[in-house]
Every structure is written in C-alpha cells, then in structure tokens.
Amino acid sequence: MTDKEYCLDGKGERRISPIVCSLWQTRPSPMSEVCRAKASSRRCCFLLRLVHARYFAWRSSQDCFKVAWSSHKSVHAKLATAASDVSSEQSDEGWQYCLRKGQMRTSKLPYFDWTGPLRPYPISKMREVPEGIEKPDWAVDGIPKIEPNSDLQTRVEIKTPEQIERMRETCRIAREVLDAAARVIQPGITTDEIDRVVHEATIAAGGYPSPLNYHFFPKSCCTSVNEVICHGIPDARKLEDGDIVNVDVTVYYKGVHGDLNETYFVGKVDEASQQLVRCTYECLEKAISIVKPGVRFREVGEVINRHASMSGLSVVKSYCGHGIGELFHCAPNIPHYGRNKAVGVMKAGQTFTIEPMINAGVWRDRLWPDGWTAATADGKRSAQFEHTLLVTETGVEVLTARLPSSPNVFPWLNSS
Questions:
Q1: Which residues bind a divalent metal cation 1 (predicted)?
Q2: Binding-site residue ranges for a divalent metal cation
C-alpha cells in the first residue's frame, strides 16, 4: 500500500487513493494535507468512494485547502446537523447508529455515499428474551456454532414426519407474528416499533426471534424501506406516506425455524411502487406453482426472471432462497435470476424458502456501513416476498401461507 493509498476495511484488502468527502448529491471538492490527515483519523471524511478521473488531480497544498474550504465546510455542517438529529431522550436510552454488523455503535451518522434518499437512524438497545424460551446457539454470543459446519450445508435434508409437523407449527406462528406487524404499519410509526411488535408477539407464542443476535444482527426482524433490498435494521425513522416497507420475520420454536416476509404499502403509494410490489408478489406465486418432485432448483430463477423482465424490472442476484429447518440457513441455495447454476432437484420432504427481491432499476446492491443493510445501487425501489415451502409427493405445501385472519392489505387479492 503506497503513501497515497488508504485502507477501507481494516484488512488492507480494499483500498482507495484519492480521498473525498462523501455526501449524497454533493460534488467532491479538492482536499489538502490537513484534510487528509483528519480523514485518516476519521475526524473528517470517511473513505468510501472512488472519484471520477477528472478529480484525481487534487493538490496537497495549503492554497488548495483554502480554495476548497467554503464548499467543504458546508458539507461538514450538513453532516453534523444530520448526525445530531437525535433527541436527548433517545440518547439517554442508548439510541445510536449501528456499525460492523451490529458489533459497534456510534453517536454520529456514518459517512457514506448513499445511493438514494433514505438514511439510517439510531437504533435502540437489543431486546431481551426471557428465561424459559428455547434459544438457538447464537442467542448469547452472536455466533452460530452448529450451522456453519453442518453437512446440511452441502446435503439437502429430507425431513421426517415429526420434523415436518414441528415446522408446520412454527411456520404458523411466524405467519401470525408477521400479520401482527402488518396491522400496525401506517405513516408515523417507526420501524423500531414494528420490531417491538414482532419481538413481543414471538415471545408471547413461546418462540425466539431467529434474527436476534444472529451473526450479531441487533434486532428481532428486518425492516427494509424503499430502496433497501433486504436486511434493513429497525430504527427510529418514522415511516412516511408513500413509503413501501418489507418486514422479514423468522421464528425459532420447538427446535426449527419458520421464515417469511411481505412488502407493505404505507399510506398512499405511487403507481410505479404499486406495480413493483404486485409484480414481486406474482413472481413468488409463479415460482411456487412449479414446485414439485423432479423439478430442478435452477428453474425457479427462470420463472421469476421471465415475469420480472416482462415488467421492465430486474432480479437481485446477490441473495437467494435457502434450505431451512433445524438450521436457519442450509442447502439448497435457490437463486431467483435466470441462467443460474443451482444444482439438484426437488424431492418430497425438502423444506426451503423462495424469496425473490425485485428492483425497479438495476439489480446490483450496495452495503451500508452497518454491514447488513443492502440498498439498490441506483437508489431506486425494491420489493420482496417470501414463503417457507414443503415439497410434497404431489406438489407443494406453503407452510407460511396467509390465514383467513391475515389482514387485507393487498388490493389485487380482493379481485381474485
């Protein structure tokens, strides 16, 4: 690493030469030695963006610093204002921004080249699970022990009738928990409040919220708003009229997991977002319709990709469906895009998720500084739906299917 390169990941594997200040829609300005020194100590600029070649010629001089200071100062003023937009009441309760996949907190908004208008807000403390609730092995220290080394990472398990019955029960609880979350979604509610509803409903049913402390994830569910594709962390931001929000719930009960998610409208949503959400719902339904013994896993992606492409939408390639049961994530992997190379065929007794993520723009994603939140690379909106499925002798059973009591939140279901 040369004297003009800076490390981005703490390992020396990701580096950057020109140092710039990243703020959404802010044009980078030339920087001086003083600014570079501050940048290296993280008091000034966070080193997260490569600049276009025409900006590579900044000069390290005091003159440069003076010339650039007026615009540079305004950038820092905006960032300081955003970072301090947390009430004293929240600060007293420990509300802070999340970093390093949940292992660190900071009182200041992280510097990042945000792809869209959404920003992270401070998060509350991790919620507690009472004694007597059966917990997965990561509940205490955040590290899964059995899952990473299990042979089920390469072998697709055929569930026993006893396992299947436990999964039916767990998946029904997961559905009821998600429905409880759906009922409280409206403009003005925070995603942290949605997380509280999910947490309390899961505990009341005798279950453990599987995401909680899984690889240090700090909350009991994922809430992905607007341009966030998946793994959004519930925080203090209030949902606004016109938002879309995905709530992803997984419950651990009687030794097995049940996983599902849905994307909801917040107030009055524009037509393009309505079409995006409906198309994503249809992608999942069409994929489920082909599930039966003998079907190749790779065909799921072909069906989803075909339907999304017809609507001018793109399919996320970075995340996929997965096997589920006594392990949260295991084989098989279920890609949602076309021309994938997934191996294997479906057999009766297998359980897995299908969870297409569909974007209004490009399929690529950018990871936020919290290490979890995946946002669209172009800042356009994304939607997702997910079910846990059981392959039967004659077809498929949707273990997380909607119930007669599920809230009526999708207009297209009323006309079907």
A1: 248, 259, 386
A2: 248, 259, 322, 355, 386
- The arithmetic mean of pLDDT across residues 67-96, rounded, is 51
Integer Cα distance of 351 and 326 in angstroms = 11
What is the pTM assigned to this prediction? 0.80
One of 1.20.1070.10, 3.30.420.40, 3.90.230.10, 3.30.470.20 is the CATH number of 149-413, namely 3.90.230.10
What are the two backbone dihedrals, phi and then psi, of residue 111, each rounded to the nearest 5 degrees?
Answer: -80, 130
Angle at which helix 298-310 crosses helix 271-288, to 10 degrees, equals 150
Kindly report, residue by residue over 250-296, the tens digit of the pLDDT.
Answer: 999 999 999 999 999 999 999 999 999 999 999 999 999 999 999 99
Helices (H), 217-291: 271-288
Over the stretch 210-223, which tens digit does the pLDDT of each residue have?
999 999 999 999 99
pLDDT interval class at 73 (50, 70, 90)? low
Cα-based distances in Å from 8 to 5, 27, 211, 331, 365:
10, 21, 27, 32, 18
Q: Where are the domains of the chain?
A: 149-413
The number of C-alpha atoms within 13 Å of 350 and in the hemisphere containing its C-beta is 28
Known binding residues: 231, 248, 259, 322, 329, 355, 386
pLDDT (tens digit, 9 = 90+) per residue, 16-47?
Answer: 433 333 333 333 334 443 444 444 333 333 33
Q: Find the helix or strand (DSSP H, E) in which 33 lies.
A: helix 33-40
Q: Which of 413, 398, 164 is nearest to 287 (CA)?
A: 398
* Euclidean distance between CA atoms 19 and 39, whole angstroms: 8
CA 174 vs CA 94, 130, 210, 324: distances in Å? 29, 19, 10, 14
Give the Cβ contact number of residue 146 at 10 Å. Answer: 12
Strands 365-367 and 314-315: unpaired
- Binding-site residues for substrate sit at 231, 329
Q: How many angstroms separate the CA atoms of 344 and 391, rounded?
A: 14
Burial class (CB in 10 A: 0-12, 13-18, 19+), 43: exposed
Q: What is the dihedral of CA 361, 365, 369, 373, to 10 degrees?
A: 80
In angstroms, the CA 271 to CA 278 distance is: 11
